[in-house]
Amino acid sequence: MSWDSKLIDRAKEIIELYPQKRSALGPxxxxxxxxxxxxxxxxxxxxxxxxxxxEVQVRxxxxxxxMYKQEPSGKxxxxxxxxxxxxxxxxxxxxxxxxxxxxxxxxxxxxESTFTFEEVECIGACGGAPAxxxxxxxxxxxxxxxxxxxxxxxxxxxxxxxxxxxxxDKFGGTKSFDWAIEDNSGTSxxxxxxxxxxxxxxx
Amino acid sequence: xxxxxxxxxxGNELEAKSGELLIEACENSxxxxxxxxxxxxxxxxxxxxxxxxxxxxxxxxxxxPSCTTEITEDLVVETESEVVTKAQEGILExxxxxxxxxxxxxxxxxxxxxxxxxxxxxxxxxxxxxxxRHFEKxxxxxxxxxxxxxxxxxxxxxxxxxxxxxxxxxxxxxxxGNKTEVNTFPDEPFRSYFSGNTVQICPVGAxxxxxxxxxxxxxxxxxxxxxxxxxxxxxxxELNTSQNxxxxxxxxxxxxxxxxxxxxxxxxxxxxxxxxxxxLNILNKSEDSFNEISISEAxxxxxxxxxxxxxxxxxxxxxxxxxxxxxxxxxxxxxxxxKDKFLSRDSSNIYFGDDLLFEGYFGDQYSQAKLEDLDNSExxxxxxxxxxxxxxxxYLRIKKAVKNGSKxxxxxxxxxxxxxxxxxxxxxxxxxxxxxxxRNPNEIEDLKNNIEGKKVTVIAGKSTxxxxxxxxxxxxxxxxxxxxLQVFNAFSKGNTFxxxxxxxxxxxxxxxxNEFDTNAKNIVFTIGVNPVNSSFFGQxxxxxxxASDFVISLDLFVNETTELADLILPxxxxxxxxGTVTNMEMRVMKQNKILPAPGSTLSEWEYLTSILNVLGExxxxxxxxxxxxYLSEKYINQEKLPTFDNLNKPxxxxxVINKKDxxxxxxxxxxxxxxxxxxxxxxxxxxTQINSPSISMLGAHKFIExxxxxxxxxxxxxxxxxxxxxxxxxxxxxxxxxxxxxDLVIAPINRxxxxxxxxxxxFDITEAKNREELNVN
Amino acid sequence: MKETLLLxxxxxxxxxxxxxxxxxxxxxxYSAARKVFKENNPGDVIEEIKTSNxxxxxxxGFPTGVKWGFLAEDEERYLVINADESEPGTFKDRIxxxxxxxxxxEGIIVTSFASNISKAFIYIRxxxxxxxxxxxxxVEQAYExxxxxxxxFDSGKDLDVVVHLGAGAYICGEETALLNSxxxxxxxxxxxxxxxxxxxxxxxxxxxxNNVETISSVPWIINNSGKDYAKLGVEGSTGTRIFSLSxxxxxxxxxxxxxxxSFGEFIDNFGNGIKENKSVxxxxxxxxxxxxxxxxQLDIKMTIDxxxxxxxxxxxxxxxxxxxxxxxxxxxxxxxSFFAHESCGQCTPCREGTTWLxxxxxxxxxxxxxxxxxxxxxxVCDNISPGLAWPPQMTTICPLGPSAVSPIxxxxxxxxxxxxxxxxxxxxxxxx
Lengths: 203, 777, 432
Hints:
Strand content of chain B: 15-25%
Strand order of the largest sheet of chain C: 8-7-11-9-10
Largest interface: A-C, 62 and 71 residues
CATH superfamily of the largest domain in chain C: NADH-ubiquinone oxidoreductase 51kDa subunit
Mean pLDDT of chain B: 94
Structural class of chain B: alpha/beta
Number of strands of chain B: 36
CATH class of the largest domain in chain C: Alpha Beta
Oligomer: heterotrimer
């Protein structure tokens, strides 16, 4: 589906932030990710028109980065870190539990489009290993048991907005450092919650 | 600018220019450094790491890629040390771990840099025992190019060529790391006029062409250098044949012209040489069909006809695929018939088959440009037919010059394809829909500021046959006065300049129609030209030919023009004859013979000489060489004669530039009212193209171009529609082109279906009722 | 031993709202910015940074003052803050972004003033969504107060700051790859020469690329002095650094210290030893790219030069501790696998070699190794990083390839038996 005028206006505002149009490619791809849950061909065509590069050049950049999904993703992106600190702190069991609960292998989405599961590299939460992200909201110190509870919660409660602090309270454990600041912000899509791309939500 | 500096390689002192790349400097000194991603004509990227060498640095020896290292004073280099040798083995082992064992079925085998360098620099065995990566193989990335991603070594030569050189970045790297592959966007195939170049520069068999796949092994091929005749840039090519069949054409690196590149038309348009539709024996018209006769019968027939027709007008319609030698003989026979044989006729009887030919800008007051002038120009000005479509390599040279800092000014409306490249594009407010210059060049600030006192190269040609010369004169004279001007006359067809140099007076197709006296006796020769199909005057010419008393066609195929002939004399074509051709720089270059003349074909000069003989003129050329000696003498610069001997010398392999007087006698058309702007596209329905199955499908696309306001006026919202004129209705793609002015609609002249469209009559465009998409494109 | 708080002082003193501009200002915030505009001498600012001897906190440790001095003259110059923290084990920039974004912004203002820059970008990795939101809020607060935008601090100068999200590519932490990514391209490192950012950086213009922690240190240096900063720490590693400690310690976290103590002291003091009282088998001193030290090497000092001399690097300041029961082959494989996934794919040795190394380690770890695999691993490593030396030589475009070699040389260097125990035993025939 092509972009409506509101989205195009948003895109043009973002383009204005940069000295050269092409720099806006990153944020525009997030707009597509938020809209469709992945970078679909129609969005590539729109973006290529807005930026002035060919479609394959857009796809070339999009497919380089892991956060731009090339295939449809579910409502909740479950990212489990498997880099060194998490690996030596039993991330494997967390991964196995989630795989069993969701029935998904790495980079797979379930039929109901509820979950997409992925094993990811270091998310900067090494002090709170093992760590996971739900739609790029970090939850630290997630034990294998808590991981299952987290998945169940998502499946049953189907929260609209994912808020890291909330999930940390319910399912998290050791943190990398004291988060200290009370924060109700989060995201409602598989694009990271960020003001410039309009994906930041409050609960 | 760059002085010679000394540097040391493997203990030997060498010299190079400061700033030159180490890999190139070594190459020039006979030291070969292996490489994959580096190519002389592309920006170096240092990606494959095969060219690593050791250099001395203040901190000891360091491994650096020689393709990105510049020569500096006293640089000390080792290309054969243990560290380098181990690195080379390592890189080759890495490249081969995922490379499939395809050699037995791969086109590239035998001329493969990966094979060669593995033999020369590689480890004896691979230690990889894991699973290689797999891709579906091969995949079509366009109608004529296939990609095998398993073979690809990700050197990025193809993607860099498409981005840097041709400006069609339709292939790119997808994914990252070990999963990287080259690919296209779905529904956006690698449709570039230059895609074939990527096949030539791919260092493995990842990119192959449908034209050459599985046809031969390189050790089977006979090879000879020649010059392409598709347009008047005259690219240097290498012809590859096997068992007397032309199998492949490659681009040769001629520093002055194509620098290694070819358009896909120049590269792949040769299947027709062996087409079963090719006329191989003399065809004689009797009743409404042709029967084969011998050469003696044909000559007898011609003599009888000429004797029978008391004092006939004999006229020649010429194409652009003859060699200089053939044009020379045509001129001889033309003069003979006009002045010696029949009542003295002072006016020329030779007409050249290019609607866009006109007087041009020759003589002492205009300096004729060379392609290298583009690189030295501060500003390049273009007013001509579509350069990308009709002079594709000229477009590449312009793009290169712009990349290196030249400014580009483009006048509308037939060069919208390079509007994006231009610094200034002058559309509707400067050029009218009738191609008049509606503002004084002196008052166009952007033009004046960028040409006054500067080195300028102008590419000057008519955009349409209806265009009056006056506007172009205004522009050229302004440029000539105010700047240091070099002029390209943008006559784009093949050996046009060879014709202009060797024919005393050249007239146009309009003159042919106007001077044709239906009351007189007329004999018409058509030589390698199909105006009934390709000319605006086609319908009129058809009538004249039908009204002629005798028509003799020297050509390759039965087509819209030759089918009207009384005699078709089948001629030789590319690779089947030796000769010279002249390009738009007045550079004379060699064409060489590698194939025998098929069937009973003869060269044009052989037929014409025979005709001269039967008419009583004692002329006997032994071979092309002899003709060439005669025509060479007439060049102005006697030190640089384009004799075969001279052209075969190593110092002249890129051709010699020389001048002759040029006499074009073509006037503007009286009418300038056209309703549909019909233009020539690179791929079309010429007889050679429709008989070359490798690429004939590329000329099937039917379209019109117009801007969105014009589309709205016609009430069109869709991408598919009907072009309707009288009883004719063509299903077309509708391409919106915002560079076009309002109310100007462009249609191709050389596409099947458009033969009956008259640019002067009214037309309508409607949306397609059933939204079926065209099969091709 | 105690922490020395410079960077983390404000956030500790005002934990609940250290991110708000009013709270920051009340705590002496933006005084460095006001100071430099008042004194109006950019050269002095650069001198102060040079005197501090602060070295880049991203991983390369290049002297910051020298880097600022290299910036070429041009009307169009840029400052890019590298907040792409992705080195496994590292989470120190995260706390600065989340809890004291205004310190960074003030650092940006001072840096931009010193180098006559009017446009700055903060490139934050996409996975740091919450930190990015905090920074964006802080930027907007600064704009509102006239500290960013046009005529900041009534100085007549402009400064625009754009927060740009990355999208999941570790290689974008490499400065030239980051610039490519910021230009809307694939995050592929550029060749140096000629693309030294100080000369040909963003959009081919002179660009300063600095780490979050480095620029966050600037306000303190200006408010106090370069000399005072140089008094902290030791020579060659002046000032304070935030070290991220993780792995099998009891209390992981970020700790800001002056450099000079040993790793053992650090782990005991701040990590409170190993969980379940186990011993240290091996530890990584500076992020996943760094070669390992063994449990016998805990006395090595935490300075850039000491670690370099001992054959590794202090890198991003991330200490990962592995206890005696850690399967080091799996640990090495995890790290090699990381680099294989993050390889950009431009150059042959890294693209093919890192994945090959991963495959061999996978076979070994799952019991399908061959006796020849150890030599094969080391030779493949040698083809990526000739000589297996430290500091590494490379056949690659950037150091990512050689980084993948670190865990393998560490594994084979100090823990070879652990690998051999997974390989088939050589079968001795009678006559041997």
